[in-house]
Amino acid sequence: MNHIRGIILEGYSNAGKTSVLKALKLLQAQDEQSERSIIVLSEHYSQILNNVHGEFQQLNRDQHLQVLKERVQMLRQLNDWADYLGPDASRASRGIFFILERFHLNHRAAFPHDSPDEIESIENELLLLGGKCVLLTVSSEIVEQRMQSRTPNEWKHKSKEDIRKSAEAFIQTQSELRRQAKLSVLPTIEINTDDKDWITYAGRLMDLLK
Predict the structure, then answer these.
(1) Which of 28, 49, 90, 156 shows its CA 20 to 30 Å from the CA of 37?
(2) Digit-coded pLDDT (tens) for 135-167
(3) Which of 108, 135, 117, 4 is nearest to 48 (CA)?
């Protein structure tokens, strides 16, 4: 029996993952019938490139798969414990709500030519744990604006060429994430975040979990 459900937030940097994550936590907390046990893992617990003691280190394919497997194993163990305690409890008291940021699609996009068997196994587990995936995207026309709006000081002294190249990388990665979403075992909905209406987007996702 499942006592667990959750959302996997995917998308390129500046697509709005963190903002939607905050809105999801707010809406979930406002629902008196919702789960009291909440697991929220930001991208720092699942991404490939990490700042380790001030130095950037990139995980290889096997290392990243192991990280994802460990995170999913944690969720599975919590659900198994709730199941062990028995069915006589409300969703609020026994249930678990999770949010994962930058997870399986991030892996697929980083290693698109490798065998999908292991990542498909992880996706199947997420599916069994009540996971739903959303890919947050930004329209190509406003990519440069979105990138610069979040950290304007970082872009002040960049050349137009540098900005253009960064925008192209954004669009290219976003296209790859879309392609990988279609290949994924875990069904994915796409939400365009041009309007930055984070609460509305989060509401759509909470409705998806009902």
Answers:
(1) 49
(2) 999 999 999 999 888 778 888 888 889 889 999
(3) 108
Pair of tokens at residue 154: 């970082």
Decide if 24 contacts 206 (C-beta within 8 A). Answer: yes
Count of CB atoms situated within 10 Å of the CB of 11: 24
CA 128/CA 138 separation, integer angstroms? 30
All domains in the chain, ordered by first residue: 4-209 (3.40.50.300)
Q: How far apart are CA 89 and CA 163, in angstroms?
A: 54
The CA-based dihedral angle spanning residues 192, 195, 198, 199, taken in that order and rounded to the nearest 10 degrees: -110
CB-neighbour burial class of residue 17 (10 A; exposed 0-12, middle 13-18, buried 19+): buried
How many beta carbons lie within 10 A of that of residue 200, not counting itself?
11
For residues 10 and 118, give the distance between their C-alpha atoms in angstroms, rounded to a whole number.
Answer: 19
Q: Tell me how far CA of residue 69 lies from CA of 63, 127, 190, in angstroms.
A: 10, 14, 25
Question: Under 8 Å CB-to-CB from 114, ≥6 apart: which residues?
Answer: 61
CA 14 to chain centre: 13
Three-state secondary-structure class, residue 102: coil
The CA distance from 176 to 127, in Å, is: 22
Which structure tokens are listed for 124? Answer: 């199947």
pTM comes to 0.93
